[in-house]
Design a protein that fits this description.
By secondary structure, the protein is mostly helical. The chain is about 80% helix and about 0% strand. It folds into 2 domains: about 55 residues, no CATH class; about 200 residues, no CATH class.
Length: about 260
Amino acid sequence: MVGCLVIALAIYLFVFGNISNFRGGEDTGVPFSFLTSGDVGLEPANLMGTVYKGGFIVPIIWTMFFTVLALSIERFFAIRTAYGRTSLTKFVENIKKALQANDFNKAVQLCDAQCGSVANVVRATLKKYQEMDQTDRLTKEQKILAIQKELEEATALEMPMLQENLPVLGTIITLGTLMGLLGTVLGMIRSFSAMASGEGGADSAALSTGISEALVNTASGIATGALSVISYNYYTNKIDRLTFSLDEVGFSIVQTFSATH
């Protein structure tokens, strides 16, 4: 998030804060001049200038927006790796066929070729299966419970890695919208202050500028919240599908042991 904050501030100050985005600054003759303390009263000449005049809320919202983008890309590769090298559905089907044929060596080979979270869990469960198959010290029910426990423990080790950073996305869903609302309120306060300061065209221009700034912050906050919702729901659904596959394979392993012992 620190890197996202630096990027957001740089864009806010050096791109949107370029003096050419304000009336009276287009003809300075300096292509890369920026606002100074004496230029803060300039009126925006375009949308970029209006966004800049939105105030300190703007880089905060952009920081969250860039954070959502960065975490979405990171989760994409992390969950893609967790799914494994080939189709998860096909992998589950092949594992079930190997179990039905009682070919555990092939099942282990499939796990080694697949990699990923599901393959790791299946490999650990199959190892416990073979261990229970070779021991006579436990009853059938105790062996089944041991296999189920191994499945649950292996799954519990993999799930935190899949859900990493999703709470941050879930927080930004609300926080992004609230920051946009805060920017809206601050813009409206400036607008009504301009309205109360006097009458005339200058005050009307200040009023319209303040409303524009408020709406820009609203749009930025809504865009950030919307992107967060889409990303969060998408990756939550991907994790749910992976969890379902784990349950399906785990059930097949337990049922195979129960039917053959």
